[in-house]
Design a protein that fits this description.
Chain B: It is a multi-pass membrane protein. The structure holds two protein chains of two kinds. By secondary structure, chain A is mostly helical. Chain A is built from twelve helices and two strands; from the N terminus they run H-E-E-H-H-H-H-H-H-H-H-H-H-H. In chain B, 76% of the residues lie in helices and 0% in strands. The two termini of chain B are 39 Å apart. The chains are: A mainly alpha, B mainly alpha.
Amino acid sequence: MHTQEWRLFAEGLMYLSPALIILGVFLFYPMFKTLYYSFFITNPRGETVAFIGLENYMHLIQSPNFQHSMIQTLKFVLYTVPTGVLLALFLAVIANERLKGVEFFRVIFSSTLGVSVAAGATIWLFMFHPSIGVFNNILAFLGLAPVPWLTSGEWALLSVAVTTVWMNVGFNFIILLGGLQNISEELYESARIDGAGYFAQLFKITLPLLSPTLFFVVTVTLINAFQSFGQIHILTGGGPNEATNIIVYSIYKEAFEFSRFGFASAQAILLFFIILVFTVLQFKVGEKKVHYQ
Amino acid sequence: MIRKVIVYILLSISAFVLFFPILFALLASLLSTAELYSGHYIPSRFSLDSYLQAFGTIPLFKFLVNSFIVSSIVTLGQLLLCSLAAYAIVFIPFKGRNFFFFLFISTLLIPWEAAMIPNFVTILNLGWLNTYLALTVPFLTTAFGIFLLRQHFMTLPKELYESAQIDGCSRFRFYWSFALPLSKPMLSALAIYAFLTTWNMYLWPLLVTSNENVRTVQIGIRMMISQEASTAWNMVMAGVVIILLPTLLLLFLGIKHIRRGLMSGALKG
């Protein structure tokens, strides 16, 4: 390179270096370190004690606890993703109408974006309260038996899922509404001239043109579901009987309660690959499906 | 006409259902303990007792201050570091800038949770446990921020940059006096988003703070539950309302910016 090019390179690097250092130290380096840990037994200070090769991974595959955790994670994903996306889609469609005061509803529907995991989960914890919670009060009012929302394995995962869906609505709604607003009004007008009704327009124009945005929302919701932690920590602590011990909670427990960094790291690597698959899928399919207008 | 009525009804029902938990928290925070346990939902008189109690029982004020400090530092840091990086990628024609851009973008593939164990060890070894450094430094840059600002910088007219160069305006001067001011909407979007996400962070503060000096409100609320859940739910709800207020206000005031920011992140990505 010429001196001129070197000077440009040095200048460019000067602007980039703060960002590079932060991402390098707190994302790239730890990612490799996680992989490294996953081949070792460690002490609670994070120092490696013994190299054990793939034993952590073997243990992972064979451990009934971890298998259970994975099954619960997949169930949780199944409970939260379709409902979360469909609910947000429904809200986006009704809030996309040109009506007086619709902006008010849009703000309300976006509001959970401003609700933290901790605050949201705490409100739901109170609503799920066995004796003074609002849900059991309503059931009692209707003459029905109370439901053990957070204390029975059957219900707990569902309760955490409902809380999660509620917390995701704001984000999903904003993205989907934006996607809807990007669809040109002319398409609808010409469809109306051709005599297409509301549902014909919805299924022939809105949904096909919204598909890239919809796909984005599905992958983001999927990835978020795999990363859920705060609501579980507050609502159930992974219980009862490990029913809500989904993957990030399991990593947290192994690493910071039992100090098994190596075993926890093997789980973290698995989480990395799961999320990698969905992100790559999002990029690949997203690229193909984007409609350029 | 009928269609309008149906849509309004659907909108109203959905708004009530979705907003119910927040409304419920607000109402419960105004109830007296006796009302709470006798199944009342509407407070009989207006009283802020639970709020005073909330501030008295845990160092809520200190937690609020901590959250403000941490969120503000992260927000400013992201604005500065992300914009510097994005500016270099767009405006400085050096070799390898595309490589660096993809390097930044590739961090979107790393879930934070997969890096948290070594990060905890790093913080431990640096002696940063229970300091603001642990809560802020790891988050001063995000790939999302760099991406968002790069997309925006690319829309700035190249002629402006060239004529500024001819007039002898230095690169840094152009960054500071033109590129940044011309990107105010995008910077606001990033700022609001950064503030919200930092304010709401849960897992990391849980790991790296163990005392009141630096602990954030999110962990404070969790402390409140473990200390008070059996007795004073009205007080816990008062705490929830207090920690929700800043972010809800920010969201309501900045909703246009947030929408724009999220959309350009979602669609052009």
